[in-house]
TrEMBL record:
The protein, known as: Protein translocase subunit SecY
Coiled coil residues, start to end: none
Keyword annotations: Cell inner membrane, Cell membrane, Membrane, Protein transport, Translocation, Transmembrane, Transmembrane helix, Transport
SUPFAM superfamilies: Preprotein translocase SecY subunit
Keyword Transport: yes
Species in which this protein is naturally found: Rhodothermus marinus (strain ATCC 43812 / DSM 4252 / R-10) (Rhodothermus obamensis)
Subcellular location field: Cell inner membrane; Membrane
Keyword Transport: yes
Taxonomy, superkingdom: Bacteria
Cellular component GO terms held in the UniProt record: plasma membrane
C-alpha cells in the first residue's frame, strides 16, 4: 500500500503527466454531466415514472449500461459512442476486401488521416439512422406519454440532437487519446459502465436474504476478474538471438532476448465489436413496430440470457479476436524488423520462414485466448439463470468486466511508462506488466 501511495505522489511530481491526468478527468466529468441532459420535448419526470413502472428490456438495459444511463433517461448522449465503434468495424472490414481502403492503409500517416475522416462521416450516417429508430421507440412505446411536443417536431429535433451528441462524445474521446492519458473511446465506455457498479452491488445485498450466497457471488467475481487479468497479461516469449556487431570500440548484440506475443493481442476490442454487431438487428426491428416477423427477429437479439443469443455472441467474440489480432499483429513486419536489426530465432531462417513461424505460434496462442474471452462474455447469461440480479450479472463477467479490466490495465501501463521514463517506480513493482519487463 505504501508503494501505491508513493506512485500516486510521483504522478503529481511530473507536470506533463499531472496535466494529462487532470485533462482526462475533466473531459470524463463533462461526458458524465452530459448524460443527465434530457432531449428537448421530453418530460424527464414523466419518463422516470414510466421507466420505474415498466422496467427495462434486457437489450435496452445493456445499451443503457454502455452509455451510462443516458438511454433510459432520453439524454442527449443516449446513443453514446457505439455508432463510432460500429463505423470503425465497417471501415476495418472494408479494408480487408476493398482495394481502395487497402491502398489507404499502405499510404502511412496520410492514409490513416483519410480513413479517420471516412470513419467520422460514416459515424454521422449511422448515428442518424439509429437516432430515427430511438425516436420512434421513444415516441410510440410506453414512454410516448413523456413526449410533450408534436411527433414530427420531436422526430426532427431528436435526430439532430442525438447525432450532435454522438459526434461530441467522439470528439471527447479523440481529445483524451491525443492530449490525455489512455484510450479516450475505451475510457468513455468504461466510465459509463462503472457508473452502475455501486448501485448494482447495493441491490444485490439488499435483495438477497442469504449473505453467504452474496459472498459466494463476490468470491466467484474475484476469481473471474483474476482470470481475465491473467489472460490479458499472458504472453508467449519467443527467444531471439542477435549477432555480435562491432561499432567503433563497442560491441553490440550477442545476447538472447525475447519477442513477447500476447495471448490476447486484440485486447478489449473483440468484445466491443461483437456487442456493437449484436445491437444492430434489434435497432433495425424498431423501425417496423407493426411487423410480427421483425418483432420476433428483434426479440431474439433482445434476450441476452437466451441460448441463441449467447451462442451467436460467443462465435462473434472468437471471430473478432482472430480478426483484430490479424490487424494488430503483422508477422511479416516483425520478421523484417528482426532481419534488419540482425536478430534471428534459433533454428529458424530469417525472412519468410520466421514470418511463418511467428504466424503459427500466434494462431495457436490466440485460440485459447479467443475461447476464454467468448466464455467470459456469456457468463452473465448463466449468472442470471443462477439467480444473480440482472444489474450485477453484467459485472459478473462478460463485456463489462472485460472492458473495465482491459481499459484499466492499458491506462495503468501508459502511466507506468511515463513514470519509468523519468526514473520513478511505477504501480506494479516486480510484476510482469508488458512494456516494463521487455
Amino acid at each position: 500500500m505504501a508503494g501505491f501511495t508513493e506512485s500516486i505522489r510521483n504522478i503529481w511530481k511530473i507536470e506533463e503527466l499531472r496535466q494529462r491526468v487532470l485533462y482526462t478527468l475533466g473531459l470524463l466529468v463533462v461526458y458524465r454531466l452530459g448524460t443527465y441532459v434530457t432531449l428537448p420535448g421530453v418530460d424527464a419526470h414523466i419518463l422516470a415514472e414510466v421507466n420505474r413502472q415498466a422496467g427495462t428490456n434486457n437489450l435496452f438495459g445493456l445499451i443503457d449500461l454502455f452509455v451510462g444511463g443516458a438511454f433510459s433517461q432520453a439524454g442527449i448522449f443516449a446513443l453514446g459512442i457505439m455508432p463510432y465503434i460500429t463505423a470503425s468495424i465497417i471501415i476495418q472490414l472494408m479494408g480487408a476486401v476493398v482495394p481502395y481502403f487497402q491502398k489507404l492503409q499502405r499510404e502511412g500517416e496520410e492514409g490513416r488521416r483519410k480513413i479517420t475522416q471516412l470513419t467520422r462521416y460514416l459515424t454521422v450516417a449511422i448515428t442518424a439512422l439509429q437516432a430515427v429508430g430511438y425516436a420512434i421507440n421513444l415516441r410510440y412505446g410506453a414512454t410516448g406519454q413523456a413526449i410533450v411536443v408534436s411527433p414530427a417536431f420531436f422526430m426532427l429535433i431528436a435526430v439532430i440532437v442525438l447525432t450532435a451528441g454522438t459526434v461530441f462524445v467522439m470528439w471527447l474521446g479523440e481529445r483524451i487519446t491525443e492530449n490525455g492519458i489512455g484510450n479516450g473511446i475505451s475510457l468513455i465506455i468504461m466510465v459509463s459502465i462503472i457508473a452502475f457498479l455501486p448501485q448494482a452491488v447495493y441491490n444485490e445485498f439488499t435483495l438477497k436474504d442469504n449473505l453467504f450466497i452474496v459472498l459466494l457471488e463476490l468470491a466467484v467475481f474475484v476469481v473471474i476478474t483474476a482470470g481475465v487479468v491473467l489472460v490479458t497479461q499472458g504472453t508467449r516469449r519467443i527467444p531471439v538471438q542477435y549477432a555480435k556487431r562491432v561499432v567503433g570500440r563497442r560491441v553490440y548484440g550477442g545476447v538472447t532476448q525475447y519477442l513477447p506475443l500476447r495471448v490476447n493481442a486484440a485486447g478489449v476490442m473483440p468484445i466491443i465489436f461483437a456487442q456493437s454487431i449484436m445491437f444492430v438487428p434489434a435497432t433495425i426491428a424498431t423501425f417496423f413496430p407493426g411487423s410480427d416477423f421483425m418483432q420476433q427477429f428483434g426479440s431474439f437479439f433482445s434476450d441476452i440470457s437466451g441460448w441463441g443469443y449467447s451462442s451467436l455472441f460467443f462465435l462473434l467474440v472468437v471471430f473478432f479476436t482472430y480478426f483484430y489480432t490479424a490487424i494488430a499483429v503483422n508477422p511479416r513486419e516483425m520478421a523484417d524488423t528482426l532481419k534488419r536489426q540482425g536478430g534471428f530465432i534459433p533454428g529458424v531462417r530469417p525472412g519468410k520462414q520466421t514470418s511463418e513461424f511467428i504466424d503459427t505460434i500466434l494462431t495457436r496462442i490466440t485460440l485459447p485466448g479467443a475461447i476464454f474471452l467468448g466464455i467470459v462474455a456469456i457468463i452473465p447469461a448463466f449468472a442470471m439463470r443462477a439467480g444473480v440480479t440482472a444489474g450485477f450479472a453484467h459485472f459478473f463477467g462478460g463485456t463489462s468486466l472485460l472492458i473495465i479490466v482491459g481499459v484499466m490495465l492499458d491506462t495503468l501501463q501508459q502511466i507506468e511508462s511515463h513514470l519509468l521514463m523519468r526514473h520513478y517506480e511505477g504501480f506494479m513493482k516486480g510484476s510482469r506488466v508488458r512494456g516494463r519487463r521487455f
